[in-house]
Specification:
five-stranded antiparallel sheet, 10 helices
Amino acid sequence: MDAEPTEAMSIAGDGTWGWVYAFANGSEAVDVTYSDIPGPWVYSVEGRMVAGKPAITRLSIVPRDPEKPEAITRETVRRAPTGTILGRVKSALRTKWNNKVGDLYAQARIQSVKVGRSWPAGHFVQVAWFAIDAELTGRAPRQVIQDTWGVSGITASRWLARARTLGYLPDYPLTPIQGRPHGYDYVAATRILEEQIVRKVLREGLTPTSDPATVRSELWEVLHRTILDNSKEAVRLRTELFTTTLVQLAEDCPDEQIQTAAQHLRDRIAQAPR
């Protein structure tokens, strides 16, 4: 670490705990432990900006059950989800100081990890977000996926194809964003992905028909089932919609009073015991 930190904030959430630090020289760091990743291991990571880019500067692999430790082998190290962890750290390091705790907690919920032989749908939502953001910033999506997860070009192409098949990627080319403030691409990428998810829900929930009354009826059923219902999935979706809206208000609301209140509420939610 640099000299003693001048500021520090703690984070404690579902399987995520640690600190974010600010130093007198203007540098910042995150020091977080993740126990939400499936398997016998808990991962402790330090992230910093290195040569102007977010990076993992320390990674520890610790037995989940100290009383029954397992041997750390070459395969253990190879299978460590460094791509997912780096994605979480990158997001936090790029976020404004007051928003870092909330971002770390949000990313721990968003960034998924492979379980068994299959990736959950949430993984391909994440792949789609990085691919959309890459296009908006004039980068090659496949290369960004390779760099983010540390996978081969073949794997990156396969993931992109799967994300497109699932309906998370638009079927039209995106124009790179120019002349916008730093970080605007994050907001735009999130908005585009949300629109794709809504289209996917409507496309899969509505049957082909030319009857407007039937369409309205089916649309209401889809909305009720996916958002307004009391099912676990509907509650989860409402929570994610609320979290996304809160993040947008905290970072981009033109009303300074509302923005400050949103930042405060988000940080309080992130630090609340669960």
